[in-house]
Design brief:
It is a single chain. By secondary structure, this protein is mostly helical. The protein is built from 4 helices and no strands. Helix 1 runs antiparallel to helix 2 and helix 1 packs parallel to helix 3. The chain is rod-shaped. The two termini are 26 Å apart.
Length: 196
């Protein structure tokens, strides 16, 4: 009743204002959608980078073990060049392992994962020290070598558990980011469909 009693000019002005308001709302939703998508993409990129660093660290965990066994084989076959290469590789792999862990620590946002990292770092240091002890014992007294190797294997197993916890934490963070992104996108799509 109120709308029918208005002049044509007032009706057109009201319709224009409603159209402009609708356009502003759709524009705001579009802007928010783009901003949210950019944030989600950036979060997923960081999470992917963290996951790559974790996978690299996991490979270095195994590479250090291979270096130790390569040195043991070199000692059995009296291959000094192989033993030297294993020692060089151990140094490089240990440094790369520590660098990967530091990379994760710089980028990771999950407090639970950061706690796991704080637990893992001393285990990593011990593992590298135990690897060095085996390398030093290679070619020496067999009892000392057996003891060093047993300590090294124990350190390997403990660190393996910490690495699994780290990987699980990073995977949970990535899955959470992905789920939040999908949920937000679904809500925004519903809103956009409802406003059109």
């Amino acid at each position: 009743a109120m709308f029918s009693s208005q002049s044509l000019r007032a009706k057109l002005l009201t319709l224009a204002l409603l159209g402009a308001a609708g356009t502003v709302i759709v524009g705001a939703v579009g802007y928010f959608t783009v901003e949210s998508s950019i944030h989600a993409a950036q979060s997923l990129a960081v999470a992917g980078s963290v996951q790559r660093a974790q996978m690299d660290a996991d490979m270095m965990h195994d590479a250090i073990r291979a270096d130790v066994y390569s040195a043991l084989l070199a000692a059995q076959t009296a291959d000094d060049s192989r033993r030297s290469a294993a020692t060089t590789d151990l140094k490089q792999h240990s440094e790369q392992f520590a660098a990967s862990i530091a990379d994760i620590e710089r980028k990771e946002t999950s407090e639970k994962t950061l706690v796991t990292l704080r637990t893992l770092k001393p285990e990593l240091q011990l593992y590298v020290e135990q690897a060095g002890a085996v390398m030093s014992a290679v070619g020496g007294e067999r009892t000392a070598l057996r003891r060093a190797l047993a300590d090294f294997e124990e350190a390997f197993t403990r660190l393996e558990g910490e690495m699994k916890s780290l990987g699980d934490g990073i995977e949970a963070t990535t899955s959470g980011i992905n789920a939040a992104s999908v949920s937000l996108q679904a809500r925004l799509s519903m809103f956009a469909e409802g406003s059109s």
